[in-house]
């Protein structure tokens, strides 16, 4: 006797059940197919006599990707879900095998670190140009979403630690960081009819501004504003400026110094910035008072943290975006050593003349004088060797 036929309704339910089962299976990462990506890459790009590539394999890894293997694995863990769960078509190598998360991260880091063309990066990994493009942008989107906690304004306890380090190292009481800005050169003008994007050196560029702490970690960044602006104008276009002016930042803890004067929280910046109660710039060149002469080198040493941070950033990552500031912070947070040989040997904005802002807020000037007098008082009290 033949088995009874299933009704049409039963067949539909059976198909629906099978479909649901197939949909419930999560994405499977093809880790095994590309687990040997580093061996293949190192063999193809291993150093030859006279090359700048380190012969030590661990150092060679940092040379190509700017991070240690441990930090690389951490970055992979951050973006793994995004790079596995939305696999677009075409993410394959020349042999037709799907790319592992590790290889995708390596491709993106190499592209950002070297600035080489997509064709050159693709050839080094055995993938096509379009794959390098897709992988890099997917990686950038994933890091910007998953690594937000590595770039944020400090809470009260962390800020107290930062202020303590600035006072110990530079004698600047209640200082919360250093601010600077740098030009990012663009290949083509973003707005062809606007001169705002054409800067003082006739380059088409945009600004990247950042506030850093005592370890050169970025605490606040803003980018995307035209490079033809002045630094002072750039500052006033930012949320950081609006928050500070509204008392929502750099307004938590007022310090009462031994001389009885009050010092609010502030950051230090260069002569391109206005002198404000919460942004302390260098003294004018014609101010040769004893307190200001002692203040100037300490201020410059603290301010140079931001200059060095940008030099390190632009030397490490040749294609700059917000994600590179996140990667910069991840390296610091992971206790990875910043590569000393990749920092730009000159200023991070070579060829650009120094801007000078003449805006002086009276409260800012009084603040600077009180900081300078306190610094001088501390030096006078310090025992001589």
UniProtKB/TrEMBL annotation:
Alphabetized GO MF terms: chromatin binding; hydrolase activity; metal ion binding; nuclease activity
InterPro entries listed in its UniProt record: HARBI1-like, HARBI1_dom
Transmembrane regions listed in the UniProt entry: none
Region annotated Disordered, chain positions: 1-31
DDE Tnp4 domain mapped to chain residues: 179-322
Keywords: Hydrolase, Metal-binding, Nuclease, Nucleus
Obligatory cofactor(s): a divalent metal cation
Family designation: Belongs to the HARBI1 family.
Name of the molecule in the record: DDE Tnp4 domain-containing protein
């Amino acid at each position: 006797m033949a088995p009874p036929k299933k009704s049409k309704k039963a067949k539909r339910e059976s198909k629906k059940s099978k479909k649901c089962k197939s949909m419930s299976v999560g994405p499977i990462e093809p880790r095994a197919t590309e687990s040997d990506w580093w061996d293949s890459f190192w063999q193809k790009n291993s150093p030859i006599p006279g090359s700048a590539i380190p012969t030590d394999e661990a150092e060679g890894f940092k040379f190509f990707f700017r991070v240690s293997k441990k930090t690389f694995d951490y970055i992979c863990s951050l973006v793994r879900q995004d790079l596995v769960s939305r696999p677009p078509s075409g993410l394959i190598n020349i042999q037709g095998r799907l790319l592992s998360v590790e290889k995708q991260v390596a491709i993106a880091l190499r592209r950002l670190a070297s600035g080489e063309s997509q064709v050159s990066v693709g050839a080094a990994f055995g993938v096509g140009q379009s794959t390098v493009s897709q992988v890099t942008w997917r990686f950038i989107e994933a890091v910007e979403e998953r690594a937000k906690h590595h770039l944020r304004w400090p809470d009260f306890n962390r800020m107290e630690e930062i202020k303590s380090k600035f006072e110990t190292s530079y004698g600047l009481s209640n200082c919360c960081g250093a601010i600077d800005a740098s030009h990012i050169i663009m290949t083509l003008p973003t707005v062809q009819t606007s001169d705002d994007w054409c800067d003082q050196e006739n380059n088409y560029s945009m600004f990247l501004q950042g506030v850093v702490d005592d370890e050169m970690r970025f605490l606040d960044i803003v980018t995307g504003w035209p490079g033809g602006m002045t630094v002072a104008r750039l500052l006033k276009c930012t949320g950081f400026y609006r928050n500070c002016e509204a008392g929502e930042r750099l307004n938590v803890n007022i310090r009462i110094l031994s001389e009885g004067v009050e010092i609010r929280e502030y950051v230090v910046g260069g002569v391109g910035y206005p002198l404000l109660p919460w942004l302390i710039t260098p003294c004018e060149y014609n101010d040769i008072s004893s307190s200001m002469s002692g203040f100037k080198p300490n201020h410059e040493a603290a301010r140079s943290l931001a200059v060095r941070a940008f030099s390190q950033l632009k030397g490490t990552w040749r294609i700059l975006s917000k994600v590179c500031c996140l990667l910069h912070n991840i390296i610091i947070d992971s206790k990875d050593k910043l590569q000393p040989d990749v920092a730009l040997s000159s200023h991070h904005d070579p060829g650009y003349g120094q801007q000078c802002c003449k805006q002086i807020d009276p409260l800012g000037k009084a603040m600077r004088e009180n900081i300078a007098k306190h610094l001088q008082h501390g030096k006078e009290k310090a025992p001589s060797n």
